[in-house]
Amino acid sequence: MSKQTVSSGTKFEEIAGYSRAIRIGDRILVSGTTATGPDGLVGGDDPAAQTRYALDKIETAIKQLGGRLEDVVRTRIFVSDITHWEVVARAHGERFGQIRPVNTLVEAKLVAPHYLVEIEAEAVVGAGG
């Protein structure tokens, strides 16, 4: 079985030796994704904006590997402050309200204090119909 990988080009992928996403067969696994753009943090201190940017990056990676956002079957959300859970959940719901993947949302200490949210995703190509 072949493995395809994609990178978003952040310095962290090279430093830590990981891929943004991997496709094996019909499965696409997307690494924990923060609101990191080419120039650093995107979304400032707005957890909803960081969530939307991370989901955009996730969708881009899935598309690069031949999938669609509708193929997502699981998301995992890590927030640095549990009081942000609802605003982050609502931003997630904007994109996944009709798709309805399984989901976990927990509080965690993230890699840097300015990151408010990190999201992982798993997709199965074709699962979205």
What does this structure look like?
The model has no long low-confidence stretch (mean pLDDT 95). This protein has three helices and eight strands, in the order βαββββαβαββ. It is globular, with a radius of gyration of 14 Å. It has one domain (3-124): RutC-like (60s Ribosomal Protein L30, Chain: A, 2-Layer Sandwich), CATH 3.30.1330. The strands form two sheets. A six-stranded mixed beta sheet has the order 1-2-3-8-6-7, covered by helices on one side. Helix 2 packs parallel to helix 3 (85-96). It has helices spanning 11-16, 47-64, 85-96; strands at residues 3-6, 21-24, 27-33, 36-37, 40-41, 72-79, 102-107, 117-124. The protein has 129 residues and is α+β, with helices and mostly antiparallel strands. Helix content is 28%, strand content 32%.
| Strand composition percent | 25-35%
Number of domains: 1
Largest sheet properties: 6 strands, mixed
In total, the number of strands is 8
Strand order of the largest sheet: 1-2-3-8-6-7
Architecture, CATH level 2?
Answer: 2-Layer Sandwich
Estimate the global geometry from the Cα principal axes.
globular
Give, in order, the helices and strands: EHEEEEHEHEE
Uncertain residue segments: none
Number of helical runs? 3
CATH C-level name: Alpha Beta
The CATH topology name reads 60s Ribosomal Protein L30, Chain: A
Secondary-structure content class: alpha+beta
Classified in CATH, the superfamily is RutC-like
User: Mean pLDDT, rounded to whole units?
Assistant: 95
> Termini, distance in Å?
23 Å
Tell me the radius of gyration: 14 Å
- Please give the share of residues in helix: 25-40%
